[in-house]
Amino acid sequence: MADPDWGLYRSFLAVMVEGSLSAAARELGLTQPTIGRHMDELQHHLNVVLFTRSSGGLQPTDAALNLLPHAETLKAAADMLSRAASGLGDDVRGTVRITASDVIGVEVLPPILTSLRNDHPDIEIELTLSNRMEDLLRRDADIAIRMVPPSQDALVAKHIGAIDLGMYAHCDYLAQNGAPEDFEDLADHALIGVDRDARDLRLLHSLPWPLAKHRFSFRSDQHLSHLAMIRAGYGIGMCQVGVALREPALQRVLPEFSLALDSWVTMHEDLRNNLRCRTVFDALVTGMKTYWRTQKPDRQLA
């Protein structure tokens, strides 16, 4: 029996993600009968039942759940093939997938990517906001911006520098509650911090300052939510210095507290000669170094 066409797995993945034949059809730009026919063909080829019908709609079977990660791998490979093909030739065009932390992706990258588009309008950007360590060797992304040194071989890495974090609060909060004079004073303030993220908790407990989890009155593992709550005047939290300096209303407290996280831009070494990826890589390095320098005006570009 011939192997099922990749298009059948593509439809299967869409049904799993979207939850219905009609939603999958809209996502793929096909008709519902076409998606239904694809599911019938795939079940016939594999000799398994993938979905059952209930009052709540389509329900995936155990077989479908077991196939899901393999279909996701096929899609990732197909996306990678498309990006690689679009990078052939001498034109700077095509798609580049970037992964970055939420704060970097929302607060730092937009002007960098806008400048990149002005110079190279035929480049398309896919941005994943994630604090997870995407596996560049599997090509989950083409380029990653991370706050830890790359540990994988076969990567091209450029060290940006240490991104400084300090403790900040909105001026309205400080006007109402006063500023802490030392770390003991933090017991009388609303603190914004981490919830359950194991890596952040390990970092927190490694600090020489008393910032235990149970003292946070607002907890979240999304760093963007920390920043939003600081801006709203909820309390005191950690913020990247380069971001806070843009907003006069954010004032630093306890300046003796400082946390530095190394930042890196990395990509797979196979993309070194890919003109599109190299162009984006170089633009990210230049833009991130400019951002790094904003933390301290006397810093020179390395």
UniProtKB/TrEMBL annotation:
Protein origin, superkingdom = Bacteria
Q: Name one GO biological process term.
A: DNA-templated transcription
> Is the keyword Disulfide bond in the record?
no
What are the protein's GO molecular function terms? DNA-binding transcription factor activity; sequence-specific DNA binding
Keyword annotations from UniProtKB, A to Z: DNA-binding, Transcription, Transcription regulation
Q: Which Pfam families match?
A: HTH_1, LysR_substrate
Family as reported in the entry's similarity comment = Belongs to the LysR transcriptional regulatory family.
Q: What is this protein called?
A: LysR family transcriptional regulator
- Give the source lineage, highest ranks first: Bacteria, Pseudomonadati, Pseudomonadota, Alphaproteobacteria, Rhodospirillales
